[in-house]
Amino acid sequence: MKKLILVCLVLSAQFFAASAHAALFDDAEARKKILEVEAVMQSQNQASQANLAKLLQSQQALEQRILAIEAITKGQVLSDMLNQIEALNQEVARLKGEIEVASHNVEATQQRQKDLYTDTDARLRKLEVSPVPTPAPVAAASTEVVAEAPTKNTQESQLLELANGLMKDAKFKEAFNAFDKFLKEYPNSALAAEAKYGLGYSQFELKNYKSAIATQQKLIDQNPDSPKVPAAMFNLANSQIQLGLLPNAKKTLHDLIAKFPNNEVTPSAQKRLKALEAIK
Hints:
79% of the residues lie in helices and 0% in strands. The longest helix is centred in the first third of the chain and has 73 residues, at 2-74. It is built from nine helices and no strands. Mean pLDDT is 76; it is low at 128-150.
């Protein structure tokens, strides 16, 4: 019986020793697993913190941009821009007003010039008696071109005679083309001065007053000894009147009267000048 009890005690002691050893072994493995898990978690935590830091930086950058935008929308910068826009709008409105006033003044000036031309024409009609009627409202009949007798029965003289005939028949467009053709084909002709006068006179009748001035001035400058110069000066003055260049017209008439006191167009020039000087 005692032996049985001792055997039981010995077996019990061995069992408890084995259990304790197994428990110790299980604790070590558990700690190892725990350490491994802690290491993994720490690594993950560090990565999370790094990502969080980046997110915080991005958030701070966005907040700074938002603050900058708010500063622009609420601060002095936007206020200055709005003030500049308002100033520009006021300037545009002022310029529009000035343009409207200028346009009105131009229209009024044009109307006054038209009235002046009408009044000038009426006064000239009263002062002048034209021996031969002419379609131009202020053109003197004495300026009508009579072609010089051609020295030779040539194509040159025939072309000029044709142009003069067209002008006498008041076919001024056709006459202009004929005179222009003559000057292009015979620029150095002895009859070139007469053709230039006819060209300028046709331009006047076609209401191309600026071109008429240029053509007659060309005749005066290039052919100062031509007998057509007085008539060219008179036509020049008439063109200047039509353009409202009254001071220029007065000077041209003064020069015409002074240089050619006995010319056939001088009496008409004197009447024209007197009428212009009477205009206030």
